[in-house]
């Protein structure tokens, strides 16, 4: 974290690719990851360790982790739904693993067919397994509070439910929890309420990351209030990949290019070269010619004469 | 202002329609304005008083003002480029007139062929004319600081230039100044810097309004920091009308529907019924079948069970 103020975690190869039908060939995934690494992106979630028959788009995640380990300095993240997945991710050499726990139990049952108790049991087993490994093989273990901002089945989720799950995750042995706006329901004040509540429940230092979507257009507005409340790590997806094809502009995750532009304009260092980052779109677009890539900055371009006279630090 | 916390000024019939080729028929404009008024929008900029040969899309603005005066309680705003336009707007019965003054003199010369001195002279003449009228015929007179965040010709604009023009506008007799992100260059910290500088130059109460574009995706992020800095009036355009057809999602003005959703979710009253507002899109789309309407919320819909359990006031 020394070289930058805000850490961007690119989740397109996981969250973006799992949301579309097309299976991106391994070589294209490698080219994408390499190009983003070279643009300065410090962390990339390269895939998830789920059964290939459930998500064939993710079948080559172990091979991708193996390749990504040749990119020196890159933090390789992977999503794991359970103990088996965590073992596979750690064996492959991932530096960071995230397990999503749906705060909505209805969603948890529907999504992974597990109750909260069963999920916490998995987390406990994973934590014990990590502890059994030599220090240098231990990944960073994140518990992701998914559907924290509301559930498409249950509707609103009480803040107390979120803090309760956050506490249980910490007790079960994760290194940190993260707030995840799975459903694109987060809005600024609600977000501030949840950040404060979770930080108060598990400790300031144990909530530093956010996973936001831009489904309802308020993704970057949410980033602004999150920055004001001590969040320093943001997931984002190149080209907002994974957006709904029926909604022009309705991207899935917040768009990495737009996020980096905004942070950069605010004088916050991300270590990322914006022009090189935008150039990565060509690689992804060529590999997925039928997918529409989102993002405002890549279309509009930088302001004339940027950054001189535009970048201002917090006032 | 009693009934709401934040005032939305719909500028689609002016800023949106002047940016597209198609001339919307007067009857369709009337239907649009009526429907938005009935959805609770308190102020609508119905057009601009410019020569019809320059902007044929705006040729019927006087007739539109005349019609809008039948909608009791609606504040009718109009853009005027000069003294002649202001006279026509006032004669037609507009409640509020705005004159844009480009802080970039290069842009001013190119756009209206006038120097800053010449523009200030127009403003002085308009203010004197307003003073000569009986009280009940005097419109609210706003001076809009356009290209305040940067110019597509000059590049960055110094803060001191913005405050200088703001002071000159106030001295010349406007009731208030407004900051206008004509070029879509505004970003959060820069915006805060300008709001603070202008408020400090002309007085807290003489800058309450913002005109933002969403060209680079940070429009609603800008709204959030503006709210934190005492801005209470926002221009917005239904469907982000006037966006660039080559940039999916790259709307012109911030989208009224998305703005109202965000404010509503923050517990800020706008007096606008979100469902009725979204329904206005049908009227506009039917009248402009070849134009793409933007906006995230209208595509994604409200969160399940909204607003109960989602709306949170400032924390």
Structural description of this entry:
Two copies of one chain form a homodimer. With 315 residues, chain A is an alpha/beta fold. Helix content of chain A is 41%, strand content 14%. Chain A has a single domain (7-300), classed as Aldolase class I (TIM Barrel), CATH 3.20.20.70. The two termini of chain A are 23 Å apart. In chain A, helix 2 (26-38) packs parallel to helix 3 (61-68), helix 2 (26-38) runs antiparallel to helix 11 (274-287) and helix 7 packs parallel to helix 8. Chain A is globular, with a radius of gyration of 18 Å. Chain A has an eight-stranded parallel beta barrel with strand order 1-2-3-4-5-6-7-8, surrounded by nine helices. In chain A, helix 3 links the parallel strand 2 and strand 3 (75-79). The interface between A and B is large, with 61 and 61 residues. Chains A, B: One of its GO terms (molecular function) is metal ion binding. Chains A, B: This is Hydroxymethylglutaryl-CoA lyase.
Topology:
Two copies of one chain form a homodimer.
Chain A: E1 7-10, H1 12-18, H2 26-38, E2 43-48, H3 61-68, E3 75-79, H4 83-92, E4 96-102, H5 105-112, H6 116-131, E5 140-146, H7 159-172, E6 176-180, H8 188-202, E7 207-211, H9 219-228, E8 233-236, H10 256-265, H11 274-287, H12 297-300
Parallel strand pairs in A: 1-2, 1-8, 2-3, 3-4, 4-5, 5-6, 6-7, 7-8
Protein name (chains A, B): Hydroxymethylglutaryl-CoA lyase
Keywords (chains A, B): Lyase, Metal-binding
GO molecular function, one term (chains A, B): hydroxymethylglutaryl-CoA lyase activity
């Amino acid at each position: 974290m020394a070289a930058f103020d805000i850490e961007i975690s690119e989740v397109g190869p996981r969250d973006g690719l799992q949301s579309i039908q097309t299976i991106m060939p391994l070589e294209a995934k490698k080219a994408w990851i390499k190009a983003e690494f070279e643009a300065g992106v410090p962390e990339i979630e390269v895939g998830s360790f789920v059964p290939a028959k459930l998500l064939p788009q993710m079948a080559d995640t172990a091979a991708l982790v193996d390749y990504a380990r040749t990119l020196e300095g890159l933090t390789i993240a992977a999503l794991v739904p359970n103990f088996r997945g965590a073992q596979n991710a750690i064996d492959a050499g991932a530096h960071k693993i995230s397990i999503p726990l749906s705060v909505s139990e209805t969603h948890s049952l529907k999504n992974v067919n597990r109750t909260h108790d069963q999920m916490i049991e998995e987390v406990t087993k994973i934590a014990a397994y990590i502890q059994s490994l030599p220090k240098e093989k231990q990944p960073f273990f994140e518990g992701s509070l998914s559907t924290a901002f509301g559930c498409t089945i249950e509707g609103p989720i009480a803040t107390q439910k979120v803090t309760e799950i956050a506490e249980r995750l910490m007790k079960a042995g994760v290194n940190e929890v993260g707030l995840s706006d799975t459903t694109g329901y987060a809005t600024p004040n609600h977000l501030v309420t949840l950040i404060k509540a979770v930080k108060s429940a598990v400790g300031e230092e144990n909530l530093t990351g956010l996973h936001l979507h831009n489904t309802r257009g308020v993704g970057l507005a949410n980033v602004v209030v999150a920055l004001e409340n001590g969040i320093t790590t943001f997931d984002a997806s190149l080209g907002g990949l994974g957006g709904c094809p029926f909604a022009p502009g309705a991207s899935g995750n917040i768009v990495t290019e737009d996020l980096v532009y905004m942070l950069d304009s605010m004088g916050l260092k991300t270590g990322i070269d914006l022009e090189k980052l935008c150039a990565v779109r060509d690689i992804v677009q060529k590999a997925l010619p039928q997918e529409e890539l989102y993002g405002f900055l890549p279309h509009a371009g930088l302001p004339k004469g940027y950054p001189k006279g535009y970048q201002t630090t917090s006032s």
